[in-house]
Known about the structure:
The chain has five helices and five strands. By secondary structure, the chain is of the alpha+beta class.
Amino acid sequence: MHLEFNTEGGDFANAGAASSSVKNILRKMGIDPAIIRRVVVAIYEAEVNVVAHAYRGKVLVDIQPEEICVRVVDEGPGIADIELAMTEGYSTASEKVREMGFGAGMGLPNIKKNADVFKIESVVGQGTDVWICNKLS
């Protein structure tokens, strides 16, 4: 099953739409709730990163019987130092984003922690690609 969701920068009201849809699908498939939780946390964090930092993005989901892989690709400022961005607590979120309760610097570390496979690439001035895969059994 292939799914695609569009995400707009600054649209916090709809942040989480992709992860919520994926959660419902995985529940209907009878996937272990602990696995669903890991998948949903990773997708949600990636969605929020797009909303908080980019202009727009896509969440591309591929659900197979044994695995779910998600690619979150955005158009935005990109990440100048991925290693630094992976540090818990490091954030480039604006004050406005922080006032809404986001931007604590846990997004990328939480994605990595909740993914069986995690990969990130970014080009400053163009955007960021994040790949997340999890086994479903």
